[in-house]
C-alpha cells in the first residue's frame, strides 16, 4: 500500500492538536493512522542534554526514529503525524529512508492568538516564553525557506482550518 504521510508541525498554541482532532473525527472510518510525537514520552531538557548533548539532538534523533517507525511499522493509506519538530529534521528523516510521499504542513498563528490560546484557553501560561515565540518565528521562516504549506489559524474557525488541510490533501485525490 502506498503511504501518504502528512507531518503537521507548529509551535505550542497554534492549533495542531485541534486540527488533528477535527481530521480524526471526520475521517475516523478511513484507513488512516493518527500519531502524536509526544506519545513517545518527552524527557526533561536536563535529561535530553545528558543523553544526547542538547535538546536539539534529542529532537532530531526522536524525529528520525518516528519516521523510520512510521515507514516500517504502520500500514495505512494515510498517516497524520503531529508534533513540534524542526522541519529540517523531517526532511532528513524522509530522505534517509528514500521516501518522498510526504507533506509537511506548518500550523501557524500570530503571537497575540498564541498568547490567548496558551494563557486563557489552555491555561498553560508557563509555555508562553520568549523561547516559544522564537520557535514560532523559526518554524515560520523554515516553512517559507522550504516552500512548505502553511495554515494560519489566527482568524479561522476549526472547520475552516480543517477545510484548509483538506484542500492540501485533495491534491493526492485521497478524499
What do these coordinates show?
It contains seven helices and five strands; from the N terminus they run βαβααβαβααβα. The protein is an alpha/beta fold and 175 residues long. It has a five-stranded parallel sheet with strand order 2-3-1-4-5, with helices on both faces. Helix 1 crosses helix 7 and helix 3 packs across helix 4. The longest helix is centred in the middle third of the chain and has 19 residues. The two termini are 16 Å apart. The model has no long low-confidence stretch (mean pLDDT 92).
The main sheet orders its strands as 2-3-1-4-5
Classify the secondary structure makeup into a structural class.
alpha/beta
> How far apart are the termini?
16 Å
Mean model confidence by pLDDT: 92
Strand content: 15-25%
SSE pattern, N- to C-terminal: EHEHHEHEHHEH
Please state the overall shape, judged from the principal axes of the Cα atoms.
globular
How many helical elements? 7
Using the CA coordinates, give the radius of gyration.
16 Å
Percent of residues in helices comes to 40-55%
Q: Uncertain spans, ≥5 residues at pLDDT below 50?
A: none
Main β sheet profile: 5 strands, parallel
- Count of DSSP E strands? 5
Give a quick precis of the structure.
Helix content is 50%, strand content 15%. The protein is of the alpha/beta class.
Amino acid at each position: 500500500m502506498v503511504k501518504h504521510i502528512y507531518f503537521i508541525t507548529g509551535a505550542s498554541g497554534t492549533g495542531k492538536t485541534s486540527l488533528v482532532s477535527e481530521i480524526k473525527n471526520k475521517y475516523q472510518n478511513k484507513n488512516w493512522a493518527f500519531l502524536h510525537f509526544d506519545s513517545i514520552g518527552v524527557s526533561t531538557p536536563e535529561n535530553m542534554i545528558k543523553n544526547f548533548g542538547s535538546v536539539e539532538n534529542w529532537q532530531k534523533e526522536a524525529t528520525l526514529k518516528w519516521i523510520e517507525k512510521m515507514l516500517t511499522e504502520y500500514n495505512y493509506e494515510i498517516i497524520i503525524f503531529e508534533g513540534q519538530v524542526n522541519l529540517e529534521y523531517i526532511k532528513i528523516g524522509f530522505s534517509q529512508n528514500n521516501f518522498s510521499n510526504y507533506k509537511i504542513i506548518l500550523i501557524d498563528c500570530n503571537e497575540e492568538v498564541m498568547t490567548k490560546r496558551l494563557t486563557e484557553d489552555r491555561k498553560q501560561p508557563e509555555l508562553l516564553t520568549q523561547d516559544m515565540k522564537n520557535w514560532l518565528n523559526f518554524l515560520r521562516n523554515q516553512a517559507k525557506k522550504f516552500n512548505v504549506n502553511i495554515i494560519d489559524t489566527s482568524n479561522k474557525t476549526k472547520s475552516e482550518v480543517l477545510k484548509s488541510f483538506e484542500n492540501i490533501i485533495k491534491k493526492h485525490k485521497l478524499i
